[in-house]
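Researcher: Let's run the pair from yesterday's discussion. Sequence first, then tokens, for each.
Model: Starting with the first of the pair.
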Amino acid sequence: MRRVSILCVLAMVAVLLSLGCSVGSGVGAASGEIFEYGCSKSGDYCASDADGGVCGPSSYDLHPSFFAGEPIDDLREYSQGSDNLIMYNRLTIRLQRSGKRIEQNDVLTFDITSSYEVARCVRGRALKDGTNDWDEANCFRASATAPGRIRLQWDSPVQASLALKATCTANLVASAVSAPVPLNYSSTPNPTVTDGSWQSWVEFEQFGTAAQYDRAPVDRDPVSGKFRIELEDRIYASTFLVTLEDDQVVTAARNNLPKPSPSIGGSLGGDPTTGRFDFDIRRGQGAQFFP
């Protein structure tokens, strides 16, 4: 009986360890050129200009080894007759240099404020009259089987930001922008783009159950307003491009305030070798802010 009990305990430990190891696992890349002034007591993170000008972006590689997704459900409830209600089910994706706390990490975050809108872009459904069933202001599809490209910016269904808490000690955040930051967004909004050539975007090839590549666009199902990402769902971004601007500069433009000089910026990604991520949603310590 003692031997059986020990074997049972060892088996349970092995199962728990295997589950624990899966949390944060995945593959990806996030490299490019970044600058951050006042990075630490040692000075700036940047490449010196040979002519003695402003210190510019320097090569940077996040080397992501920990991937986490946190689904956050819209707390509104459906009632009878509310079938057309769109739920703003959220998904926060983090690419981290390590599995340490985010306060001690370099972290690239993709904050999806509407899983429904991303799912519509990935599904690529067309109506019988030829109308595209997705938000063309924030989504571009090169073909019926191409991944859905989503614009990245503070006013898009997907936002992105970078914080270098392991590389630097300065408390700075850079946000993704889809076009150069104007003096004031209300008077000079971003130019209209119809070909997906934004300065910041992410292409999702798999987003939970959203993709239906085996069907013609007119035969694809409409995305439910309740669409959400579940545990064990796959999140696969085949590539991304993130153009980063100091969040203080972006905030000033949004609020019609004088723009400060940027202290952080640069870009990451642009092709699958420099920007991508692929992982399954797992529950566990480190993967969720709220276990």
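Model: Moving on to the second of the pair.
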Amino acid sequence: MTLSLEQLLAAKEIAICCGSGGVGKTTTAAAAAAMATVSLGGKVLVLTVDPARRLADALGMEQLGNVEVRVPDSVMKAAGVEPRGQLWAAMLDAKQSWDELVRRHAPNRSTERKILDNPLYQNISGRFAQGHEYIAMERLYEIHRTGAYDLIVVDTPPTRHALDFLEAPDRMAEFFSSRLLRWLTAPARSRMLTLASRPFYQVADRVLGTQFLQDIAEFFLLFQTMYDGFVERAESVKRLVHGRRTTFLVVSTLEAAPLREAEFFIDALVGMGLHPGALVLNKVLPPYFLDQGATRVAERLRADGPALAAGLGADAVDPATVARVLREVGESFLNFGVVAKREAEQRAELSARPDVVVTVPFFDTDIYDLAGLLRLGRALWDGS
């Protein structure tokens, strides 16, 4: 049984962070990568496939693109650390990745050029259904295959879209062998359409235009020439994701909706035969709300407000006002204590499946730079 997130990541090559929106998933991915760079060494890459550009801000960089860039050592040193390794970062550029995919799988240069020049491809590459998710998996596989990084931390879109991320290779392969694709390419395959289909194409030709139909047919017909490459790569991606060197970090808060999403995703991972390595519970109340001594102090503030107010000697303030403040402070602390107990019970219930359950306290300030990321990273390392 793995005891800590540090030990888990030390044994893995890919860690895929998943979670619903607003739970700190992107920041957690960046913090885990930064902390791994500091404590584990080697080359660590944090890769975001979330279209939002939050990762660059979290790392204090102006922008990120499809090509990995190194976070300068000077930035790490300015955050107060001497890294043992190198931290790199990238954000998926769907259009550029699709172009590279076409160049890789096209059977010849002529077909490659025809696909890249096709007007339909130029307009929808990286945008059609499952396109972004598929190319993200393709990009992850390609980066991992280079062997350039000891650890790749992947930041995915919100939870249910992350399932699309995992299922995209199979769905893309199914699409390339589907009846719909055969129907779309029929005009380019033969000019002798059946009597049943001819009326449809006559209407479509009047509404959409002959050139549009030709562009659609040519686009999908050309893409079918890459079918074998897609299917072969999809199988390779599945083997990578199901391999023992890949794990999943499910990020959540203990609020009802995100927690349900986390439980849903853990169940889905198990059902798909994948490895839910860690559950990161973010923004959890600090443990001092469960301290018995602190609870007794709060109870006394609530019950003995007037006597305590008199003992404070706050002459400039009405003693009744001071007593009310003390009662409110005590009552507020006790209410937080109730929530903290509930969170502790929920954490205990959730600890059965993942190897690691990490509790990260609620921070008083926002995380906006690398120093903040490392502060969160230390909490991730210590919170198991």
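Researcher: Give me one sentence on the second I can quote.
Model: The CA atoms of residues 185 and 221 lie 6 Å apart.
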